[in-house]
Design brief:
globular, 20 helices, mainly alpha, 0% strand
């Protein structure tokens, strides 16, 4: 009898869970095509639920430890509950409720991500796959810096033309591009920040091969991050260098890395118009008062003033996740002035703490902090071996949510999916120490 008690208690087959790394790697590889990546995330969530229901959740601890199941779920609810609680009196309640319902898919997807790194074999496949993807992005972007075109984006664009007679980006978007964009292309300007956030997977893989390998990879990846133009990514990548290199080369080595980075920025300042413009814009913060601050931050001072207004008006549960753009006109500090980003409202707060407060209120901030506390507690009480195996995911998650920086929207599909993927990888890698690899 296939449904006998003995069958239900039988161990999972040796290949159980080995499908999970494939979903994670394909999801990340498709980030330059956000629609396809979103489809893979949703299908991965459905697939994970189907596999678990098919076995009636039997053998769950063979896929993932009980502690990892718990931490992954806690981190999800720290993200999702503020979204749900903010929806009931949001500016657009139906839209907010539909988004909250749709984002339930992140929970099984986070389980899938945790399963993908829950034993040595799966973890090696997943982290190696992510490192290879990041390396391909870096090489492609360096080729764009030399030849003016990303070979991978050009190939995708030609395929799109062949399919329906249209390119991936409009001529206006292509003409307006002012930064290195690699495979992401001129109409998806998230390349720099995305690369910086996932660069730990490549840098830790290089560090395993020694100092020279780490140094060469750090140099190549850093050049791309700087030329990609997002200054938030510069700070993110500086944190990645610190976290990945400190134990490898010590403080003297990191001092040398800092000097080399400064020299590199000076060189790029003189040869790259994009870097030149952003450095000059950053310098305006030093001598032009609040107007200079706003110009240096590309209008973010104005956005942050509006976010504080939303916090004052809706302190308990905010204006609703992704409700920033609807609430912005009522809180615009300079409604008669064209903002630095051009016409239209700001879409999000560009800063994680202000986004959480403005969109989900103090209830949301408390829940996020509770999730962060649980993540830190799990790290604190884990063994050195468990920390080592989770370090790439931990650093990637840490630099992505680092509060003293500017950010993309954490309640958007792209950046929310990226952040929760990293949270799932962190929980799965940290809390599955010494799990045997199936043979």
């Amino acid at each position: 009898m296939p449904n006998s008690a003995a069958d239900r208690l039988a161990p999972l087959p040796a290949h159980a869970g080995h499908w999970a790394p494939v979903w994670v790697i394909v999801f990340v590889a498709l980030w330059p095509a956000p629609g396809l990546a979103e489809t893979v995330l949703s299908l991965g969530a459905v697939f994970a639920i189907w596999r678990l229901l098919r076995r009636r959740f039997r053998g769950g601890t063979q896929l993932l430890s009980g502690a990892a199941w718990a931490l992954t779920s806690v981190l999800f609810f720290a993200y999702w509950l503020p979204e749900l609680l903010s929806a009931f009196d949001a500016i657009d309640v139906p839209v907010a409720l539909r988004k909250s319902a749709a984002d339930l898919r992140y929970l099984p997807f986070m389980w899938l991500c945790a399963i993908a790194v829950a034993d040595p074999l799966r973890r090696r496949r997943t982290f190696t796959g992510l490192a290879v993807i990041v390396a391909v992005w870096v090489i492609d972007a360096l080729l764009q810096a030399v030849f003016g075109t990303s070979p991978l984006f050009w190939s995708m664009d030609q395929l799109k033309w062949a399919i329906n007679g249209h390119g991936l980006c409009t001529p206006a978007e292509i003409a307006a591009v002012d930064r290195l964009n690699g495979l992401f292309g001129p109409c998806n300007l998230k390349f720099g920040q995305t690369l910086a956030s996932v660069s730990p997977f490549l840098l830790f893989a290089a560090a395993a091969r020694g100092r020279v390998a780490w140094g060469l990879v750090a140099l190549a990846c850093g050049a791309v991050v700087v030329m990609a133009g997002a200054r938030a990514a510069w700070l993110t990548y500086a944190l990645v260098l610190l976290c990945s290199g400190w134990r490898l080369i010590g403080w003297r080595g990191m001092l040398g890395v800092g000097v080399a980075a400064l020299v590199g920025v000076v060189v790029l300042f003189n040869v790259s118009p994009q870097v030149h413009e952003r450095v000059l814009r950053t310098r305006t913060v030093l001598g032009s008062g609040m107007d200079g601050v706003d110009a240096a931050l590309s209008g973010r001072a104005q956005i942050w003033s509006a976010a504080l207004c939303m916090v004052r008006e809706h302190p308990l549960n905010g204006v609703g996740a992704r409700g920033f753009r609807e609430a912005y006109p009522q809180c615009d500090p300079d409604p008669g002035q064209v903002p630095a980003w051009g016409e239209g409202p700001a879409f999000h707060a560009h800063q994680i703490v202000l986004e959480i407060l403005a969109e989900t209120g103090f209830i949301g901030l408390i829940l996020w902090l509770a999730g962060a506390a649980q993540a830190w507690r799990a790290w604190r009480y884990s063994s050195p071996a468990a920390r080592d195996q989770a370090r790439p995911a931990m650093v990637a998650l840490l630099v992505t949510v680092f509060p003293l920086n500017t950010h993309l929207a954490f309640y958007s599909s792209f950046w929310g999916g990226l952040t929760l993927m990293l949270a799932g990888l962190y929980a799965g890698a940290l809390l599955n120490e010494d799990r045997p690899t199936p043979v």
